[in-house]
TrEMBL record:
Gene Ontology biological-process annotations: cell adhesion; Rho protein signal transduction
Pfam families associated with the record: Vinculin (PF01044)
Family listed: Belongs to the vinculin/alpha-catenin family.
Annotated organism of origin: Uria aalge (Common mure)
The protein's name in its UniProt record: Alpha-catulin
Designated gene of the protein: Ctnnal1
Low complexity: compositionally biased ranges: 7-18
UniProt GO MF annotations: actin filament binding; cadherin binding
Cellular localization per UniProt: Cytoplasm
Keywords: Cytoplasm
Ranges where the record places region Disordered: 1-20
Cellular component terms (Gene Ontology): cytoplasm
Length: 763
């Protein structure tokens, strides 16, 4: 573990009393920090008690109660620590030593504070907190150090769980890469989906817990890549299985696997606080951060004329001006902005020369006139840097606004889809060149925005966006080439849709990111947002009276998000099952597809996306979903009339189970609630029950498909099948529209992606 002083606010507050945790233990998570705070508070109360000549019985009893409370709390804490040690042999020795030290320190504090029953607690014949304050301080220091060590050791176990989960995901990915049959792929992908849910839960909790905002943003970016790529992996792999000899399909699939591995590796780097081959992480340098540091140094001359050299100041300005060349050398910077940046760069050099001249004179002769001249030079230099900062901000944001507006119609993507279906290789090649040009523009936009983003988390978001455009562009091209080579392939068409939607999603994210960058620049930051985490449902909650938004706390939001992610993967499983049916017009298939579509809308709600904007929308969708499930149960009953033998009771049992679950969901969705807490409980219950129905649906669809296949094989399991009912009710809500077909396995439209992915910020 890295060695640095304990940064806990609670621990640092105790330093005035001579307390402090082990300097070799760095506290990186909020949970460890918050666990220590009450303990530090109680011990500090003991140490800082006032030494009055006379002490009332009430005071003595209070001191004894605090000491006993500390000892009891430590005893319970150590019991848990010892249980953890027994379950994790590699940490048992260290953990046991720390637990013994903590227990001993707690008992010492209890003994030293056992003063309420003494007639003369300050008597030397009985060592107490009043006669041996140094002993109390030593015991308190040992207690804090040992408890902190137990917590940090326990934290290592969490890290180990994440690494183990990552290893399982990697192992299953290797299996997915090697499969040669679609049936085998579906089975392994189901396992992979469960492992990804587990990994998402563990890393989501870890992301919440991180104290470092920069690491939190990096973790969020990596997890967003994994979430998107999970769905990309499905269509890319299916396309490769369908067209095993297609080189572009293989390139497309390999690109997804490679990106997922990189994201998994970055998560582990963040969690373990390590870099491959021991290399140090290079922090991105932006013009904003450079100007901020430069101005701080310049303004520091008011207090101290000797704390830095003129060479240091000159070097800092040179670095800033080198970065402005990213703007002046860019083909996308307007002539007006380029000229202004060059003029301000020249002026900054002149102002610094004047500042250095006055500064050197002031060092030799500190007269009133020279100090006034120095103040003027400082003000003029800082003003020039502010103008430079404003100019590069204007250049970057105006370019971004223009590009985002220009590409909002997605004409190139639409053309690629059309020419791909037509099998027009020449036209596809023409539009892939245009997409490459668009990619270069957007990558340059991200680089310039990074310079003016204003905060480290936003810088990381810009870097993530740049990487996304760099990677997704070539993936769209390989997907389009595959479709052009196989224009009648439905899966190749679907695969291209998935990657196009990822591109559109990132463009949508950039609009929100641009707004956030402008908010930071203009000082109207508003609600703090953490980009690219899991969804944030609280944004759309409403009460029953006036649809007034209800804001959920982070724990509530995290709980909803985990259910949402599970719902997302279940919709993919259902879609995989329905694709296996040869008769896509079968009533069971259509009800299943409709329910999957609605469940997906509810998943989007947990992300703050889609058409469901309020909790009322969610509850209404849950009612419709339950109604559709009841219709499916009726269809299963009708289907059971054709089944005989042992299969019929099983099918009827599953149908009755579905009916019961849908009725429960309807009751929950229709229930009247008031207030924030009750609204959240209802939202949680609706999504949970929808997830349970979808889990059952994943079991029902393959069962029915198997029974139909048995009938075709002549196994006598089914009676002659009457014509299916033609009165299929398909509303716009649950119809299997072309748009839904395109969204089946892909990355869905993310209109508010940046703001939606806030909520796993802290617990």
């Amino acid at each position: 573990m890295a060695t640095s002083p304990c940064s806990s606010s609670g621990v640092s507050s105790s330093s005035s009393s001579g307390l402090g945790a082990d300097a070799g233990l760095e506290i990186r998570t909020r949970s460890v920090e918050q666990t220590l705070v009450p303990l530090v508070s109680q011990i500090t109360t003991l140490i800082n008690h006032k030494d009055k000549p006379k002490r009332s019985d009430k005071t003595l009893q209070a001191i004894q109660r605090v000491g006993q409370a500390v000892n009891l709390a430590v005893g319970r804490f150590v019991t848990v620590g010892e249980a953890i040690a027994n379950e994790n042999h590699e940490l048992k020795e260290e953990m046991s030593v720390a637990c013994i030290e903590a227990r001993r320190a707690g008992e010492t504090i209890a003994q030293l504070t056992d003063v309420a029953s003494l007639d003369h607690p300050e008597s030397d014949s009985h060592i107490t907190i009043f006669t041996d304050k140094t002993g109390v301080v030593k015991a308190a220091r040992l207690l804090l150090s040992s408890v902190t060590k137990v917590l940090v050791l326990a934290d290592r176990i969490v890290i180990k769980q994440i690494i183990t989960s990552r290893n399982k995901v990697l192992a299953t990915m290797e299996q997915l890469e090697k499969v040669s049959s679609f049936q085998e792929f579906v089975q392994i992908f189901s396992q992979f989906g469960n492992e990804m849910v587990e990994f998402a839960h563990l890393t989501g909790d870890r992301q919440n817990d991180l104290k470092d905002e920069k690491k939190k943003a990096r973790m969020a970016a990596s997890r967003a890549v994994l979430e998107k790529c999970t769905m990309m992996l499905l269509t890319a792999s299916k396309t490769c299985l369908r067209h095993p000899d297609c080189e572009s399909a293989r390139i497309n699939k390999n690109g997804v696997f490679h990106r997922m591995r990189l994201a998994l590796e970055q998560v582990i780097e963040i969690v373990t606080d390590s870099r491959p081959n021991g290399e140090n992480e290079m922090a991105p340098i932006s013009i904003y951060s450079g100007i901020k540091e430069f101005k701080n140094k310049v303004e520091g001359l008011r207090e101290n004329l000797y704390f830095l050299s003129k060479e240091n100041l000159s070097t800092m300005l040179e670095v800033i001006l080198e970065h402005t060349e990213d703007f002046t050398d860019s083909a996308y910077t307007s002539h007006e902005h380029r000229e202004h940046i060059l003029e301000l760069s020249k002026q900054a050099k002149m102002e610094l020369e004047q500042l250095v001249s006055v500064w050197m004179q002031a060092q030799n002769q500190k007269t009133k006139d020279l100090m006034e001249d120095l103040e003027v030079a400082i003000l003029k230099t800082c003003q020039c840097m502010n103008e430079l900062k404003r100019e590069v901000h204007s250049a970057a944001t105006s370019l971004a606004a223009d590009l985002l507006k220009y590409h909002t119609d997605h004409m190139v993507l639409k053309a690629l889809k059309i020419t791909g279906v037509e099998g027009n290789l020449e036209a596809v090649a023409e539009y892939t060149c245009k997409l490459s040009e668009q990619k270069e523009q957007l990558v340059e936009m991200c680089r310039l925005l990074r310079h003016v983003s204003g905060t480290e988390p936003l810088e990381i978001t810009c870097i993530h966006a740049e990487d996304t455009f760099q990677v997704t562009g070539p993936q769209i091209i390989s997907a389009a080439e595959t479709l052009a080579l196989h224009p009648s392939s439905k899966i190749a068409k679907e695969n291209l849709e998935v990657f196009c939607e990822a591109w559109e999603s990132q463009l949508s994210d950039m609009s929100m990111l641009l707004r956030e960058i402008n908010d930071v620049f203009e000082g109207r930051r508003g609600e703090k947002r953490v980009y690219l985490s899991l969804p944030r449902p609280g944004k759309h909650n409403a009460n029953l009276k006036a649809l007034k938004p209800v804001k959920l706390d982070t724990e509530e939001q995290a709980k909803i998000a985990k259910l949402g992610l599970e719902l997302h993967l279940l919709t993919s499983d259902v879609d995989s099952e329905t694709e296996k049916w040869e008769d896509q017009e079968n009533e069971i298939v259509q009800h299943g597809q409709g329910m999957s579509s609605m469940a997906y809308s509810m998943y989007l709600f947990t992300r703050g996306e889609g058409l469901l904007k309020t909790t009322q929308d969610l509850f209404h969708q849950a009612e419709i979903f339950a109604t559709e499930g009841t219709k499916l149960a009726s269809a299963l009953h009708a289907f059971s009339d054709q089944v005989h033998g042992d299969d019929k009771p099983l099918l009827l049992l599953e149908a009755e189970k579905l009916t019961s679950m849908c009725k429960q969901l309807q009751i929950t969705a229709k229930a009247s609630v008031q207030g924030k807490s009750a609204t959240f409980t209802k939202v949680d219950a609706c999504i949970l029950k929808t997830r349970n129905v979808m889990t059952l649906l994943c079991q029902l669809l393959p069962l029915c498909c198997k029974l139909l296949r048995k009938n075709k094989a002549g196994n006598g399991c089914l009676k002659p099948a009457p014509p299916w009912r033609e009165d299929r009710i398909r509303t716009g809500t649950n119809a299997r529209t072309p748009e839904r077909r395109a969204e089946t396995f892909g990355i869905k439209t993310l209109e508010n992606h940046v703001t939606n992915m806030t909520f796993l910020e802290s617990k």
